[in-house]
Each structure stands twice: as structure tokens, then as C-alpha cells.
């Protein structure tokens, strides 16, 4: 696949310009660009600027509100609800995690659900924000059905990711950000874009049989059999039902019905370690735990043990210097002048 490497700042500006041309206000366009480029910097390209074209198609078709008036309603000392007004999920999620962070700072914990939202991108962005404030962040979002339930032939659940961000004293935060499917749908889309095969076990065809051709993928599989399946349902409960949104097969489609508002839900939580233990000791122990994990001798075939989030952080450090690498077709779209 032909690729182009550009500086993160250039990518951001291109995305902002495209979104503005499509009728989005500056503030929302900037936030979306930041979340997308965050993903590309971490080599999570499946959730990076590659998605801009789809978002613009949905925006133009009427499936996203370009003038969303996103509001927060406090529902208790440490709880609240964000109403996304059918705007961009990245902006809705950002506002929701900010409210959770503020409550956790003053009251120890903050929990916020978001409703009337849309695709919010890579969850790592939001839990990292909490970790940067020396808080623990948790995020979940449901998505439309593509994953078979364990033992089932037809799809019911989304790739329903869950993410945790935990701060440390001197080291970068622990960031576990994972779809509850074996892989995120974006990785299948990326393999299609790149003309590559996918490993066996990632997906099944319309008969429920394993496939390696990304073009034959009908459904994805949950990771870890019944465990990943159970977690995917939990994500649908927290980010869907608790947010007053739909579940599984009733969730608005990402790549169909572009003219319809998706009405997605998200769940965010921030926890202040200082309300539970000595915060300095907690942060030192996080450093120590991660160091000791990294020192575990590697098994045959492994270079070393990484902590969750570390590989992406290494990519980010390098890509900040050298630039992010995206498909040439994506770059062409981003740089194409409006007729
Ligand atoms: N918004 C949505 O609707 C949606 C839906 C699905 C996925 N996503 C996003 O897709 C992205 C990719 O998800 P994914 O499940 O494909 O991620 P992944 O499988 O690449 O990584 C999952 C986690 O495992 C960790 N990890 C990977 N290799 C490791 C190793 N060797 N040692 C230690 N830790 C390791 C990573 O740091 C990460 O925290 C995430 O950002 C997720 O939020 C978003």
C-alpha cells in the first residue's frame, strides 16, 4: 500500500479544514482532529484520520448534527449526564470525561454517561486525559452489531471497547484500551484498504466459518470466548442501557443509514486515588509495578514484556518526531480541493 508520512500538526490542520468545509464549527473540528491524530500518533491508524471521509459523508447526509448544543446535567454529587444533541462523539466524550474529572478532583469520583452521541474514536484519548490529572480514567462505548455472541452464528454485539488509564509518578500512564472483539472493526477495514489478509480467528464469514480474506468478513468474534462476550455485554449495559440508549442489534449503524442519527451512548468514570490511599505511594507503586512487569524475563519468541499502552507510547514518541504514516488515498482525500 502506498503511504505518505506527514507531521501530526499538518494532519490536524488538513482534518480541521475538511471538517470546516463540511460545515462544522472550529471548536468541534479541532477536537475531532486532535482525537484522530492522537490515534495515528499511537499507530492506531484504524481510528485515525482515515475516518474523516466517513464522518464527512455522514455529516453531509444529515446523520450528525453540525451545530450540536452539547449539554451537561448534574444528577447527583458525583454523577451526571451529557446530551450530545447528535453531534460528534469525540466532542461529546471529551465534555463528558472533563465533567467526570472535575467531580473526581473535588469528590473522589465522577461518573458521567453520554447520550445522543456518535462514533467517538479511540477511547485512550479520554482515559489519558484523566491519567494526566493523576486520576484513574475508565471509558466504554457501545457500537453497532458486528460481533457474534459466544456460541452464536449471527452477529448481535458491537466491538464495544473498554479503556482504563492509570497514572504513575515518573513513568507514562498505564493505558489499557481494547475492543472486546478479537480486533476492532477498523483493523479489518485497514486490511481491506491495504489489500492484506487477516489472521485466522479474527472473524467469520456469513456461515459462521473462520476467514482470512477481509472482504469475506461477515462478523467478528469476541476475544477470549465467553469472557470477552460477557465483557461486551457489560459495555452495552454501562454505555448503552445506563445511558438510556439502545443495545446490540438495535444500535444505529456506522456505515449504513448515513442520514440517521446514531443515538449512541458512552460511559466515563474518573477516580481520585487520594480519596482511597496515599496518592504519592499509589503513584510510586504504579511506577514500581510497571518496572517489575517490564523486567519479567521474556518467553521464547518475545523480545520483552510491555505494559498496556507502552507500545503505543513508543510509537507516539517516534511519530511526534518523524510524522504519522497514512495511506496515500487518505492523504489525497484530505488534500483534495473542494470543487
Ligand atoms: N469508538 C468505537 O466505537 C471503537 C470501537 C472499537 C474499538 N475502538 C478503538 O480501537 C482501538 C484499537 O482497539 P484494539 O482492541 O484493536 O487494540 P489492540 O488489540 O491493538 O490493543 C489492546 C490493548 O492491548 C495492549 N497491548 C497490545 N499488545 C501488547 C503487548 N505486546 N504487551 C502489552 N500490552 C499490549 C495495547 O496497549 C492496548 O491497550 C482502541 O483505541 C479502541 O478504543 C473504538
TrEMBL record:
Family annotation (Pfam families): Ldh_2
Sorted alphabetically, which Gene3D superfamilies does this protein's record hold?
A: 1.10.1530.10, Hypothetical oxidoreductase yiak, domain 2
- One term of GO molecular function: oxidoreductase activity
Q: Could you tell me the keywords of this UniProt record?
A: Oxidoreductase
In terms of InterPro entries, this protein maps to:
Mal/L-sulf/L-lact_DH-like_ah (IPR043144), Mal/L-sulf/L-lact_DH-like_NADP (IPR043143), Mal/L-sulfo/L-lacto_DH-like_sf (IPR036111), Malate/L-lactate_DH-like (IPR003767)
Q: What protein family is recorded?
A: Belongs to the LDH2/MDH2 oxidoreductase family.
Q: What is the designated name of this protein?
A: Ureidoglycolate dehydrogenase
Organism of provenance: Heyndrickxia shackletonii
Amino acid at each position: 500500500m502506498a503511504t505518505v508520512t506527514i507531521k501530526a500538526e499538518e494532519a490536524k490542520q488538513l482534518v480541521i479544514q475538511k471538517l470546516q468545509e463540511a460545515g462544522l464549527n472550529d471548536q468541534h473540528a479541532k477536537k475531532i482532529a486532535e482525537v484522530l491524530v492522537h490515534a495515528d500518533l499511537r499507530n492506531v491508524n484504524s481510528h485515525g484520520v482515515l475516518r474523516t471521509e466517513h464522518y464527512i459523508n455522514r455529516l453531509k447526509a444529515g446523520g450528525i448534527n453540525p451545530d450540536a448544543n452539547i449539554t451537561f446535567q448534574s444528577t447527583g454529587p458525583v454523577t451526571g449526564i451529557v446530551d450530545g444533541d447528535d453531534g460528534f462523539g469525540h466532542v461529546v466524550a471529551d465534555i463528558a470525561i472533563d465533567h467526570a474529572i472535575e467531580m473526581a478532583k473535588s469528590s473522589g469520583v465522577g461518573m458521567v454517561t453520554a447520550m445522543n452521541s456518535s462514533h467517538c474514536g479511540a477511547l485512550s484519548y479520554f482515559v489519558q486525559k484523566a491519567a494526566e490529572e493523576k486520576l484513574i480514567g475508565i471509558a466504554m462505548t457501545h457500537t453497532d452489531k458486528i460481533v457474534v455472541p459466544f456460541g452464536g452464528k449471527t452477529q448481535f454485539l458491537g466491538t464495544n471497547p473498554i479503556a482504563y488509564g492509570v497514572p504513575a509518578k515518573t513513568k507514562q500512564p498505564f493505558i489499557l484500551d481494547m475492543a472486546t472483539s478479537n480486533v476492532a472493526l477498523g483493523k479489518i477495514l485497514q486490511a481491506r484498504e491495504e489489500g492484506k489478509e487477516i489472521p485466522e480467528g479474527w472473524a467469520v464469514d456469513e456461515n459462521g466459518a473462520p476467514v482470512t480474506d477481509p472482504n469475506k468478513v461477515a462478523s467478528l468474534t469476541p476475544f477470549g470466548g465467553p469472557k470477552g462476550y460477557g465483557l461486551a455485554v457489560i459495555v452495552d449495559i454501562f454505555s448503552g442501557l445506563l445511558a438510556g440508549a439502545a443495545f446490540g442489534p438495535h444500535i444505529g449503524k456506522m456505515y449504513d443509514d448515513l442520514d440517521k442519527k446514531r443515538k449512541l451512548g458512552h460511559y466515563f468514570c474518573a477516580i481520585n486515588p487520594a480519596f482511597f490511599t496515599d496518592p504519592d505511594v499509589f503513584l510510586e507503586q504504579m511506577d514500581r509495578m510497571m518496572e517489575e512487569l517490564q523486567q519479567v524475563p521474556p518467553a521464547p519468541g518475545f523480545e520483552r514484556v510491555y505494559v498496556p499502552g507502552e507500545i503505543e507510547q513508543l510509537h507516539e514518541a517516534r511519530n511526534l518526531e518523524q510524522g504519522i504514516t497514512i495511506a496515500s488515498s487518505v492523504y489525497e482525500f484530505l488534500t483534495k480541493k473542494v470543487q
